[in-house]
Input
Amino acid sequence: MTTSIGERTHTRHGTRRVDAKRTEARLRVVYPFDLKATYALTGDRLVIGRRPDEPSQPRLSHPTVSRHHLVIEWDDRAGAHVGTDMGSRNGTWIDGSPAHGPRPLAANSVVRAGDVLLVYETGRGLADNEAPGVSLEAIPGEAPPVCLLRAAMARAARDPSPVLLIGETGTGKELIGSEIHRLSRRDGDLVTLNCAALSPHLVESQLFGHVRGAFTGAGETAPGVFRAANGGTLFLDEIGELPAALQPKLLRAIQEGEIQPVGSPKTVRVDVRVIAATNRDLAADVERGGFRRDLYARLALWELRVPALRERRGDLFDWIRRLHEKWIDRRSSSVETPAFEADAAEALLLHNWPENLRGIDRLVHELAGAGIGGSIALSQLPAWLSVREDATAPRPRGEVPAPGSGPGTIRPPTPTREELESVLTRLGGSVRATAKHFGRDRRQIYRWIEAFDLGHLRQKNDGP
Output
């Protein structure tokens, strides 16, 4: 699907032609729910409307969509797809802003055509046969990052080496660990320990066990989670919180397959596959001296990144449905599955979801607990959903809100360091093109570059 195109690059020696790879992208219709469809952006121009002229162009059969509603085109200079309204009756918005003129699309941009909502997705989607055995019920979603995650899980599952899951809080890391354990077909149990939930003097005993009388209160011998997981899998949540004094002991347990219970002079052999999870940047912790480099290297033999919810917006409503069904099953309730009106659905898609799946669980609980189901209006959404990214998301150092922003103002989301690095690299370090890509002022791009320490990627003749 990826198409190579020519792009003009200006240098001190004149203009030369270089090859640049066009972003592999698609638009996924996510609302109304009965219009679900996916449009691959493989050509130079895609017209979306109720009755486009060409049979190959997508037809959105919805009364709020005009005959020729909007056009998505590839912009060579910006190195991005841009969307423009075509004089439609009910308008086009991209990330909450009117698309009267060309507006660049970033990964997971929300496109609204009348009352139809689409999500712009980038990256290669993978077929199910590239993630054999991974349960779509346990790890659902069609967004490209989720497809990549399932494929990585399938590769890692049969290997007894440790797995490190890195992702924000609430992204479902324990669910992923459980599915990897199931796929591994190990005979033993899956045992879970949260390293952040225990006091430092108890962690060693919890991990490796203790003998009777090893310390005050140790009235009985305890096996510890390593022996409890013998033959199976040990899931260590919040591994970044493990005290420094225990890190070499954990390394030995993983590397040598031996543990030493507290108070015992003898070691015990164990056969345990370790899956660790964290919401911290362990690589950065290693550089700061807060986490052992050798332990990180051992844990990260399989390092899987779990995408945040804002990186898989196209799967949002499916998660709402799933968590609503779980809420109903636990309470034998009859509250209808939320359907949402267009304004409410758009607000949900544009929300930053700092709590990820826990935020959806909170939303479902508040709506269903109040008996609100069926078609839900914007005014019926919980008040905390009106707080935009400007007030909820951590902002890189030095970033300030743009004039006119604040509660109720929807702005394109702040990119992650990886997203900004990828765009800068693809656009040859051009701040001007990067600003156009993200729909932000150039000064904001400079702030992000400084905050994320990416100055080495910027063109040297591209301004201050």
About this structure: The first strand starts at residue 4 and ends at 11. The CA atoms of residues 299 and 358 lie 26 Å apart.
